[in-house]
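User: Could you go from structure to sequence for me? I need the amino acid at each position, not a summary. Structure tokens:
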């Protein structure tokens, strides 16, 4: 593991690759504002690594759960100066071995990630139930999607009114999330491919009432509870599957409420901020609020002009930003890791957040600016915030108040404390989905839309499909693991889908527009041209398909399930691979464990806190294949990561005899 940490340091030593980030970090340093990159640099500045990040924590060998501790254990891979601080014990005070400790701490990480996505899904499901009751704030926008979801859930829609169908869908979602109910989750049965033998054998098909299962999981990690390393790791798979289903529920309900995304041209970069307008940054993950903010920003344009602005400009970051991008074409100011920079420009008048991935440092940054830091949900309160609670009943009033706060802040903006980088951003095409892709394929084969895609995979024009997903990290060279991997995959004729911050990184480096097709292998280039013509686009589709936000990773799971059913096989047999190359938050661990449980081998490129247990590493990277047909690939070097992913695709092609 130590070699992984050393490789990370080597990669981040290459500096910042995005010139907008580089310019803005330099500006903020002049203003005395530290960013995530400055904090990382501080850890790197000591002699002999004495001030490096905690080695015990980095290896998963520190437990502070109970008051007998904190306890730390030794490991062969610890650096010398850390080994000198290791007590002469083989177990923690309560008796945990290194294997127990590492696996238990990893399960806690997965549980926090899964609970985050369950929380998101519950927010959306409750709002969906109100929509089904006839809420004026949230009408059902996509009736076709409602009928499709109802059919997948086994709901008879004959001669039923739209709201009655929606009530039944909402009821099944709430049963899956909070109960009551018996048997497997309804949405699990809708998502799963026909061949679920491996999932069933490993007892990985979850039952209704996911929140109760989460409570049981948290209970199992308490002091004096589960200490079987194997069972702890199997629990990681189980809660990973629940996480993917929470994503699936959120995506399906959001599509019904807000509409299935369709390809939209837009822009990404901090230059989407406009100095002569009121700028509102939407940030977080739940898109229903951000859509309301966009709506009321349009309604209150004249009020902004009366305040001296030329209008109102709503821009996004993180997954909330992605959601309004793929449905409304709203531009993205940047990726989640850039939030300090975007707010620090002094051009943002209000940053409106809902839940997850919001840096606490925004409190400090906004304290020295005119910018309103607006929180909207009780789970996320911040120092120096303006709290405007968002509920289904007050959505219109909350959105109005948020926009009015931004207009008031605009009047206080200091012209001499405004900065925008000179480097310009990029055009992008976002808004692809499973439905969009199948709609394009239907133009090639109306009766069997999957046949053209599968035929292209069989004949080798498309070698396989890769999904790039998850966060961006300052612990390596930010963006460049994804960018390097993406370019290598494309060169080797692998079709690439991207979600979340991985997608925004690719967009900021110009990979989400048709002009980037020069990077693509010959056979895949022809495929992109064919699909572009079928889609009615002016030229080919982008070399990387933007498949939405992080919750929209479920769209990729749906596509995998459809292909598996078409070929009458299981997902683990397909030439598919995923990468969370720069994973940061707990949700990423929950997603990649869920994806592995479904049968898709997944790569990570930042050192996980698992190195204190060679047994756990071996289980995840090798032995899991006997259970799920897939494994975890841990590789920090981007070129080697791409090679490992391509090698996996070739292995699966060989297994299928193609």
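Assistant: Here is the amino acid at each position, in order:
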């Amino acid at each position: 593991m130590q070699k992984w940490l050393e490789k990370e340091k080597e990669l981040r030593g290459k500096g910042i690759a995005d010139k907008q980030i580089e310019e803005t970090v330099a500006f903020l340093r002049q203003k005395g504002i530290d960013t995530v990159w400055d904090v990382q640099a501080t850890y790197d500045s000591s002699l002999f690594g004495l001030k490096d990040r905690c080695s015990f924590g980095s290896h998963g060998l520190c437990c502070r759960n109970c008051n007998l501790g904190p306890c730390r254990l030794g490991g062969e891979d610890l650096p010398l100066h850390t080994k000198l601080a290791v007590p002469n014990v083989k177990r923690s005070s309560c008796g945990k071995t290194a294997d127990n400790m590492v696996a238990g701490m990893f399960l806690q990480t997965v549980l926090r990630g899964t609970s985050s996505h369950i929380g998101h899904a519950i927010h959306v499901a409750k709002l969906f139930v109100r929509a089904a009751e006839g809420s004026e704030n949230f009408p059902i926008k996509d009736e076709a999607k409602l009928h499709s979801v109802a059919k997948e859930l086994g709901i008879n829609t004959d001669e039923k009114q739209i709201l009655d169908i929606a009530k039944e869908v909402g009821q099944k979602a709430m049963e899956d999330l909070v109960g009551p109910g018996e048997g497997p989750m309804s949405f699990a049965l809708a998502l799963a491919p026909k061949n679920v033998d491996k999932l069933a054998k490993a007892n990985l098909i979850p039952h209704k009432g996911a929140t109760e299962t989460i409570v049981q999981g948290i209970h199992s990690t308490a002091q004096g509870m589960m200490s079987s390393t194997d069972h702890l790791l199997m629990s990681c798979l189980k809660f990973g599957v629940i996480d993917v289903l929470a994503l699936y529920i959120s995506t399906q309900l959001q599509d019904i409420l807000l509409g299935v995304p369709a390809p939209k041209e837009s822009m990404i970069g901090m230059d989407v901020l406009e100095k002569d307008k009121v700028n509102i940054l939407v940030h977080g993950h739940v898109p229903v609020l951000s859509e309301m903010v966009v709506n009321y920003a349009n309604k209150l344009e004249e009020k902004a002009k009366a305040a001296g602005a030329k209008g109102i400009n709503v821009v996004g970051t993180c997954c909330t930003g992605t959601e309004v991008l793929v449905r409304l074409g709203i531009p993205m100011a940047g990726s989640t890791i850039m939030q300090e920079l975007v707010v620090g420009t002094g051009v943002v008048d209000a940053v409106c957040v809902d839940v997850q991935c919001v840096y606490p440092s925004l409190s400090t940054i906004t304290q020295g600016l005119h910018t309103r830091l607006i929180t909207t949900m009780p789970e996320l309160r911040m120092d120096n915030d303006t709290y405007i609670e968002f509920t289904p009943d007050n959505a219109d009033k909350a959105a109005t108040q948020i926009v009015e706060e931004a207009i008031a802040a605009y009047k206080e903006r200091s012209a001499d404390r405004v900065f925008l980088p000179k480097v310009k951003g990029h055009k992008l095409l976002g808004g692809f989905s499973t439905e969009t892709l199948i709609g394009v394929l239907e133009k090639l084969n109306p009766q069997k839309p999957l046949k053209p895609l599968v035929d292209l995979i069989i004949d080798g024009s498309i070698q396989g499909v890769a999904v790039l997903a998850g966060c961006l990290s300052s612990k390596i060279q930010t963006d460049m693991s994804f960018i390097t991997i993406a370019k290598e995959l494309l060169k080797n004729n692998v079709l690439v889908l991207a979600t979340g911050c991985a997608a925004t990184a690719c967009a900021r480096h110009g990979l989400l527009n048709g002009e980037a097709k020069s990077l693509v292998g010959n056979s895949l280039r022809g495929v992109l041209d064919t699909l572009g013509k079928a889609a009615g686009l002016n030229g080919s589709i982008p070399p990387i398909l933007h498949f939405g936000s992080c919750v929209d990773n479920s769209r990729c799971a749906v596509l995998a399930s459809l292909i598996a059913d078409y070929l009458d096989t299981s997902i683990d047999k397909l030439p598919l691979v995923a990468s969370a190359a720069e994973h940061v938050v707990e949700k990423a661990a929950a997603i990649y464990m869920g994806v592995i449980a479904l049968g898709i081998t997944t790569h990570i490129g930042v050192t996980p806190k698992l190195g204190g247990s060679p047994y756990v590493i071996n289980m995840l990277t090798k032995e899991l294949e006997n259970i799920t047909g897939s494994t975890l690939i841990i590789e920090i070097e981007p070129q080697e990561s791409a090679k490992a992913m391509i090698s996996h695709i070739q292995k699966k092609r060989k297994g299928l005899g193609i």
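One structural detail worth keeping in mind: The chain has a mean pLDDT of 95.
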